[in-house]
Each structure stands twice: as C-alpha cells, then as structure tokens.
Amino acid sequence: MLAQTLRAYSTAARRRPFQVAIDGPAASGKSTTAKMVAQRLGFDYIDTGAFYRCVTLAAMSKNLDPSDPSNVQKISDLAFQSRIGLKTIFADPVLNADKTLSTPASLPTTRVFLDSKDVSLEIRTGSISKHVSAVAAIGPVREAVLQKVREIGAREDTGDNHGSDSSSAGLVMDGRDIGTVVLPKADLKVFLVADSRVRAMRRLEELIRNGADPSKENLDLDVVQQDLERRDELDRTRKVSPLRKAADAMELDTSNLTIEGQVDEIVKEVEKRRGVPTQH
Ligand SMILES: Nc1ncnc2c1ncn2[C@@H]1O[C@H](COP(=O)(O)OP(=O)(O)O)[C@@H](O)[C@H]1O
Ligand SMILES: Nc1ccn([C@H]2C[C@H](O)[C@@H](COP(=O)(O)OP(=O)(O)O)O2)c(=O)n1
C-alpha cells in the first residue's frame, strides 16, 4: 500500500509540468513573451486575458452593458455558459546544416474560439478593450474563468493537449493574477513592466498591423495610452484578484529590451531552476 502510494506520488510529481506565471499591466509584452518562451521550451501556453475578452464579447453581443450593475447576474451566467477554446500554433524547429535544431524566429499565433467561432481579432478591438476591465472585476466571472483555465491546465497535465498524446514538459500562463491566484505555486513567476508611453506605442502599432485605421477611428497615441492607464488602474484597484506583483516574482522592465532579449532572460531563468539546459 505504501509502495503504491509512493509510486502514485512520484508519478504525479514527475507529471506536474514546470509552471511559468507571467503577469503585468496592459501591453507590457506578456502574451508575446509567454508564447515565445513556450515555443523555445516546448511548453504549452494559456492566455487568460483572452477568456475575459471572450466574456466581454459575449455580453456585448447581447447588448449587456458591463458598467450597468443590473447586468452582473446575466454576464456571470454567460461566463459560465460560454465555451472558450484556445489554439496556439507553434512553428516547427529549424534543422541547421550541422543537424542541430534551432528555434524559428516566427511568432506563434493563438486563435481564440467562443462557442466554436473564431473571435481572435474581434476580441482585440477598442470597444472590447474599453469594457473588459469592468467584466473582469465581477467576482463570479472570475470564478467561471478560473474554472475553465484550471480545466485546460489539468488536461495539459494528463497529456490531453492540442490533440497530442504526450503531455508537455511545462506550461506558460499569462494574465494579471496568475502568480497570486491561479498558479500560486508556479516554479517561476515573472512580473513584466514597461513605461506607459512605450506600451502605448507598441499597442498602437499592433492595432494598425491588425487592420485598424487611425484616420477613421478615434485612435492616436494619447488615446491608446489613456486607455491602458485607465485599465491598469481598474485592474489594480478591483476587490477580487487585483493586478499585483507576487512577493516571489522576478520583475522585468521591457521598455529598453528587445522581444528576444526578454524571452532570453526568462528562458535562462527556467533553465537555471529546472537544471536542464534546453536546445535553442
Ligand atoms: N521588447 C519589445 N519591443 C518591441 N515591441 C514589443 C516588445 N515586447 C512586446 N512588444 C510588442 O508590444 C505589443 C504588446 O505586447 P503584448 O505581448 O500583446 O502585451 P500584453 O500581453 O502584456 O498585453 C505587441 O505588439 C508586441 O509585439
Ligand atoms: N488573469 C487575468 C487576465 C486578464 N484580466 C483582465 C484585465 C485586462 O484589462 C483584461 C484583458 O487582458 P489582456 O491581457 O488580454 O489585455 P492586454 O493584452 O494587456 O491589453 O482582462 C484579468 O483581470 N485577469
């Protein structure tokens, strides 16, 4: 009996993927960095912000204004009922002339599905960004998202991930409360920050890259910066699971870093903590 228990325990211990929690304010580089870290290490990736954005889209599609307190119950019900799925497409490693493998330079892309519909671009529009913090402040909505995220995390733990039959060695998850609430025992916690003007420039470029037209929409650097700062303030001051740095998180300021640079810092730290150098 004891031997059986010990064997079960050691299997569970071996199976638990290495967890990397990445938190920080809006547009600090969390999802880009998290995806690339996952690609470099062969880990899975979960973007928790996408869940709050999907619930916001579901609410707005039903004309439920998230800032109206009388809609809280209906939005909470929607959060529990909505089926939300993520699929991250990682690029294959590159085979070098000397037969070694290296990580491709291309960025992985994450497709987001709400009740089977691909809403990847729709959830990034200005109107969703404007309302998402109000939705994310609703306690039952956070419970519903936590439940969904943990279910996905547990599937990855048992190998039922992305249709693959083997579980990955680790998991990278990004959001606002990953290190404090969702994965409080994460093996590595990172808190990304960057100057708000720099974040606004990067976010504006991204919106334009994704097809936004600043001449037609009310979109300039000041507008984007104000939206990021307003959202950060709401996320930091809400009662349930506010945005804050976990006491044991490593802080990384990306203002003067390249994307590769910030990914390198995190991968180095994972390798140090795992004691296993990974192939690049
Ligand atoms: N070090 C960097 N240098 C330049 N652009 C960056 C850097 N880090 C992130 N970005 C860009 O900034 C934008 C916001 O990053 P993103 O990963 O979406 O942030 P978050 O997930 O924190 O909101 C993206 O367009 C991303 O490509
Ligand atoms: N774990 C999380 C993730 C996101 N949120 C909320 C707070 C954010 O304003 C929204 C959207 O998050 P997302 O990471 O997609 O937003 P940005 O890419 O940083 O603009 O969701 C949260 O409260 N908790």
Automatic annotation (TrEMBL):
Give EC number(s), comma-separated: 2.7.4.25
- Domain of life per record: Eukaryota
Q: Does the keyword Kinase apply?
A: yes
Q: What class of enzyme is it?
A: transferase
Mention one GO molecular function: ATP binding
Going by the UniProt record, its keywords in alphabetical order are: ATP-binding, Kinase, Nucleotide-binding, Transferase
Under InterPro entries, the record lists: Cytidylate_kin, Cytidylate_kinase_dom, P-loop_NTPase
Which residue numbers delimit the Cytidylate kinase domain?
20-271
Q: Set out the biological process GO terms recorded for this chain's protein.
A: nucleobase-containing compound metabolic process
Q: Which reaction does it catalyse?
A: CMP + ATP = CDP + ADP; dCMP + ATP = dCDP + ADP
UniProt xrefs under Pfam families: Cytidylate_kin
Task: Please report which protein family the annotation says this sequence is part of.
Answer: Belongs to the cytidylate kinase family. Type 1 subfamily.
Q: What protein am I looking at?
A: (d)CMP kinase
